Amino acid sequence: MNTAEHFKQIGTRGFYRPVGTVTFEQAVEMAGAAMKNARARGLADLLVNACGLSGFASPSVFERYDLAVSWAQSAGRGLRVALVVRPEMMDPKKIAVLMAQNRGVSGDVFLNEADALAWLDGHLTSTNTGAFPPIKPTI
């Protein structure tokens, strides 16, 4: 599938909403290509809505691991990624997100675009996204 066909840029944010019947591996490759495209454009964040993809079952733990590795390699540390999936694809423990975050990814998974956009917008209002407050320099 052509990534550019379903990719849209508004300001410093990318939107990728692919549609089609694919394998899980193809879906991972498509999302990875969209992340690389967003990085090449210098975007700050990307919303990937995978709800329009079908043709595969809910991923196993091993497939979620492959997703996390691909996510980390494709998004890098600078691109924030919000992934929207259908409810049957969501792991309640968000294991793929945890594995990706352990590799430096700034991302999360959601069941709808409104929550995903709220999360991305929340990062625009704060430069500190970690658990610790920013360190204030002493003079």
In brief, what are we looking at here?
The chain has 139 residues and is an alpha/beta fold.
Tally of strands: 7
Structural class: alpha/beta
Q: Order of strands across the widest beta sheet?
A: 1-2-4-6-7
Question: From the alpha-carbon coordinates, what is the Rg to the nearest angstrom?
Answer: 15 Å
Shape: globular
Secondary-structure element sequence? EEEHEEHEHEH
Spans where pLDDT lies below 50 across 5 or more residues: 127-138
> Main beta sheet, described?
5 strands, mixed
Q: With helices defined by DSSP (H or I, 4 residues minimum), what is the helix count?
A: 4
> How confident overall, as mean pLDDT?
89
Fraction of residues in β-strands: 15-25%
What this model shows, in words?
This protein is α/β, with parallel strands linked by helices and 139 residues long. It is built from 4 helices and 7 strands; from the N terminus they run βββαββαβαβα. The longest helix has 17 residues, at 24-40.
Short key terms for the protein model shown above:
single chain, 139 residues, alpha/beta, two-stranded parallel sheet, 19% strand, disordered C terminus
